[in-house]
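mind reviewing both lines:
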Amino acid sequence: MNLPILMYHHIQTESPVLSKLTVSLRSFKRQINWSSQKGYETISFERLGGFIQGRDTLPRKPIIITFDDGYQSVWDHAKPVLDQSGFTATVFLVSQAIGRHNIWDLQKSIPIRPCMDEATCRRLLDDGWEVGSHGLNHYALPELAPKALKEELTGSKNALEQLFKCQVTAFCYPHGAWNNRIQEDVKRAGYQVACAISAKSASVTDDPWALRRVKVKGSDTLSDFKRKVSNWYLTYRGWRKR
């Protein structure tokens, strides 16, 4: 099936937006308000996994909202907007960055941004949000030796489950980097689903361990957003990738 899985990172109040992975608060509000007005209902990956396995049902117009990395701006800026529409989201956390910052960007010309701490993540969970794994350190998985790869997958899952006392069933490939070998390791690590930026599948959910997401860019207009979440566009992207 095709359903929009939106990929966000950082929400910025200042303008102009200086990164393709940063969306302005103004644009985010317009996108969420439009989605709510059109009757979309947010679901979790746990529920999607249950649907794929035949254990659960979905609303008429499901949508999944994701935030990679766990920036503090998710709590400060995104959550109040989502609360107004009754929406929840999934945050893919980098275990070693909780309460710290974007440690994976230290060697790049990217601003250092704070990440949410443990208490803030707990408040999200208490409000019905979902936590997923984005690895221990945000490493590109295909570059790792088997032992280090296992630690990124199982180590991060165990750390999050012990920290938040919840089951972590969703994984997100850091840097969007994955291959068939990595995918098999993700399955063995016990994840029910995994998110990719792009995948060679006819529909978004054809492969539960390579779920195709919609990258929301800072340069996207509301018209761009409407096009990206439309069923015809999701279908077209699947056809084009095959």
Summary: The first strand starts at residue 5 and ends at 8. The chain has eight helices and eleven strands.
